[in-house]
Amino acid sequence: MTNSPNLGRRGLIAGGSAAILAGMLASAPGANAAVPARQGRAGMPLAFGSDGKFRIVQFNDTQDGPRTDRRTIEFMGRVLDAEKPGFALINGDVINGSPKSALEVRQAINNVVQPMESRGVKWALTFGNHDEDSMENGTGMTEARMIEFVRGYEHNVNAGPEKGVEGSSNAQLLIRSGSSNKPAFGIWLLDSGRYAPDTVGGQDFDGLMGYDWIRPSQIQWYRDASVATEQKYGKVQSLMFFHIPLFEHHHMWFGSQFSSDDAGHAAAVKKHGIVGVKNEGVYTGAFNSGLYAALQERGDVRGVFVGHDHINTYSGDYFGIELGYGPGTGFGTYGLGGDKEHHLRGARVFELDEKAEKVYTATRTVFAKDLGIDMDPKKQPLDEPLPLP
């Protein structure tokens, strides 16, 4: 494996016909199309198949406006048709800050959830640092209002905001066994926030990353829900998804806590079984939230997967918890640059088998360039937004 040169974090790029794409989206229903999506929303909205298998697809950073690049939608559809997942996730930065009205926010979201919704694939989203950027344009679309909007879709399984818990996209989703009414695995969704405040204790964040972090109320919520789940069902192994990476994503790659020197990377690859590439920095929150320590304490999360850094794709086993990235999915935001701008547009797939000892059996990445998607660096926006439901 080679460690590609660090390209640095690029600025956000602001952002065929809709009728043709809408027809494309209506093809091949997913495996769960016949199951009413609302059934069991408060309990177990997802279920393993009779063969004991379940597949998750993670999209990341679709990050576009009301005229989303058509290739984002095409790629998502091709992945869903090929993988036929039981659940798909857009893990933060669902849209960018270009919408000028609440309608345009809804259109931007609708464009990238239609690949799941039109196929009957159950889905959810988490929020990233850019999802509320359009508030500066006077749209009034807070994350709470976006959650209210997406919960109106038939196949969405997002939960409503938890009272007293920071963020709007926190949720625990239990996946019911194919042979009983008990959960065989779980999915945690967290809202990793947006940006650090201007000051804390009278001090600014100059010299730090400047992004938000998982807050204590969220960690307490996770711990309480984890304990309650164990008391009811026994310990339920799970995966966790949120947008902004942990400090530990950095430490794993470099094999060091306080250095970004690649001198220790070769040893870290061997120690942690790292696969994939890192093409930009690990843009963590300003503070280390302590979430990773809480996960170690509870022992029920097998892996933590993030986005945010579009051109990082690596994953590895960090002291018993897999840490990794889903590659950036959207064609409307920054990529590798030059002729290879879109060559890491992708998704991450997770394989579950409830008959296997640890249930979570494998993860892999899927890239648009391998599915016949046009790699031309030039933008290809929709002629019109896809029709709202």
UniProtKB/TrEMBL annotation:
CDD domains: MPP_Dcr2. The keyword Aminoacyl-tRNA synthetase does not apply. InterPro entries: Calcineurin-like_PHP (IPR004843), Metallo-depent_PP-like (IPR029052), TAT_signal (IPR006311). The keyword tRNA-binding does not apply. Residues 1-33 form the signal peptide. Residues 54-311 form the Calcineurin-like phosphoesterase domain. Keywords: Signal. PROSITE patterns: TAT (PS51318). This is Phosphoesterase. The lineage of its organism: Bacteria, Bacillati, Actinomycetota, Actinomycetes, Micrococcales.
